[in-house]
Design brief:
Layout (H helix, E strand, L loop, with lengths): L2 E5 L5 E2 L1 H15 L9 H5 L3 H7 L7 H14 L5 E2 L3 H10 L3 E6 L3 H10 L5 E6 L6 H11 L8 E4 L2 H10 L3 E4 L6 H4 L6 E3 L2 H10 L1
Parallel strand pairs: 1-4, 1-6, 4-5, 6-7, 7-8
Antiparallel strand pairs: 2-3
Helix pairs in contact: 1-4, 5-10, 7-8
């Protein structure tokens, strides 16, 4: 079965409200700038460095903040849902014989709990990436143990770093337009394909 690797936050699930709440809890402790849901669209258009500057978050402190952030995120797990249409896409791809995999920097048990809560049983494997080392390391590790060539796999993600990671390991990527980064922020990375809505993923795969 050919693997399709699906990014979690921003691609499969709409966790915007949970992420905003988690960030604001941490920001208040450190006197960093808090955000609201209406700020998200503007933030999507910024690079990581630009976001850090806007939020008064020193970039070197990101690794120190992440454990607190993920703990708060997990507490909001029951309020997180798949983007409309994405569960149907996963089921259709599974029906066609693809091996569905999830990649995330969240803990594996967090992802498994989400899948169980939302009655998603078609995911074959969960890949956990180090938020600092990059997703390419997790993908590369999987490629090494797979019998399928990297260029015959497919990645579905929403961020600039997803596209860059895929370029490093020669895995084609479908960038989705409903996630955490706007079209302006990712064009420089030149994703292989672009989906404006979940059903476009099926259309792209049909065209390959």
């Amino acid at each position: 079965m050919k693997p399709i690797i699906v990014d979690f936050d921003g691609t499969l699930v709409d966790s915007t409200a949970a992420l905003v709440a988690a960030w604001n809890t941490i920001a208040q402790k450190h006197q960093w700038k808090d955000i609201s849901l209406k700020d998200i669209e503007a933030l999507k258009k910024l690079s990581l460095m630009e976001r850090s500057k806007l939020l008064n978050l020193p970039i070197y402190k990101v690794p120190l903040v992440l454990p607190q952030f993920y703990q708060l995120y997990r507490q909001a797990l029951q309020d997180i849902r798949p983007f409309k249409g994405m569960k149907k896409v996963l089921l259709e791809l599974h029906k066609r014989g693809f091996k569905i995999m999830i990649i995330s920097s969240h803990a594996k048990d967090t992802i498994l709990a989400f899948l169980k809560l939302n009655d998603i049983h078609c995911v074959a494997e969960v890949l956990c990436s180090n938020p600092i080392a990059g997703k390419d390391k997790a993908i590369e590790k999987f490629i090494k143990k797979s019998t399928i060539p990297a260029d015959e796999m497919l990645y579905i993600g929403d961020e600039y770093r997803d596209s860059i990671a895929c370029k490093k390991v020669s895995v084609p990527i479908i960038w989705v337009g409903w996630g955490y980064e706007a079209n302006e922020a990712i064009q420089h990375s030149k994703p292989d394909y672009q989906a404006a809505a979940p059903q476009d993923i099926i259309k792209i795969i049909d065209s390959l």
